[in-house]
Design goal:
Blueprint lengths: L3 H5 L7 H15 L8 H17 L2 H16 L14 H53 L9 H29 E2 L18 E2 H25 L1 H7 L15 H18 L2
Helix pairs in contact: 2-3, 4-5, 5-6, 5-7, 5-9, 6-9
């Protein structure tokens, strides 16, 4: 049975990041374009690419690990263990070793799924916060910044700057993880990454832009319709006109939502 871990020169316990790093290092070294079209290097490159295609996918890697485990401990198709030794204690020890290794595979799958879930939450929560806060600002038109004392304005502006930086960092992480660049690169190093990403960079940017403008437009329509009601409810901070300061609030809300989500995650 082909040992893909040996091909990538990594441990069977290597993390996804270590496997990806090992693949990139070998791909750069063995790429045919960098080795004058060497057939030998091309074959090695193909093996490395195949190994990463299996080990780089959590589900395929788990299936592959189970195959290795069955081969190593000689597990037959009906699930019974076949040992060369008939010693009762040897059989028991090997069964325990098999179960321990199998549990390690399951634990790693669960950890991979949890990391993927956390990564997804880190973009879902900011996006929901951005769209909902943009909608709410358009409806209620709060003039908190204008009507705050100087210290309040300093705090709000500081939170806005931190919020913008935080929002862009979340968007960048999301684009890097879930979108691919449609531009064609000449560098062979840009061609050695076989992982498939679900959306193009243009689709990701369009989703964010359209989502913000749609939230803003719907909010303004509802806000104008409820203008008198809202003005009577919060007269001290309500603005009848659209102000530039309104851009301050969505990044601050995103920052607060993400902070609350991070705190809540600590208690899970």
């Amino acid at each position: 049975m082909v040992n893909y871990y040996e091909i990538l020169k990594v441990s069977p316990k290597a993390s996804n990041a270590e496997i990806k790093s090992a693949y990139r290092r070998l791909a750069r070294k063995l790429h045919p374009d960098k080795n004058d079209g060497s057939e030998e290097k091309a074959l090695e490159f193909a093996k490395v690419a195949k190994a990463y295609a299996i080990l780089g996918d959590p589900k395929q890697r788990a299936d592959y690990d189970r195959q290795i485990l069955r081969a190593e401990y000689k597990i037959s198709s009906n699930g019974e263990t076949v040992f060369s030794s008939e010693n009762e204690y040897a059989r028991r020890w090997r069964r325990m070793a098999y179960e321990r290794r199998y549990n390690e595979i399951i634990d790693r799958m669960i950890a991979d799924e949890r990391r993927e879930s956390v990564a997804l939450q880190k973009i879902i929560f900011p996006m929901v916060g951005l769209f909902v806060s943009t909608f709410a600002v358009a409806v209620f038109k709060p003039a908190v910044f204008t009507k705050s004392p100087i210290i309040g304005k300093i705090i709000l502006f500081s939170l806005f700057v931190v919020g913008v930086i935080h929002l862009f960092s979340r968007l960048k992480a999301a684009f890097d993880r879930y979108t691919y660049d449609e531009n064609i690169h000449d560098s062979i190093f840009e061609m050695t990454e076989p992982e498939q990403k679900p959306y193009s960079r243009f689709t990701g940017i369009a989703f964010v832009v359209v989502g913000v403008f749609l939230s803003l437009g719907i909010g303004l329509l509802i806000g104008n319709y409820l203008d008198l009601v809202i003005g009577a409810t919060i007269p001290s901070i309500y603005s009848q006109t659209f102000r530039l300061e309104f851009i301050f609030y969505p990044p601050i809300v995103v920052l607060c939502v993400d902070l609350m989500h991070s705190v809540a995650s600590k208690f899970e």
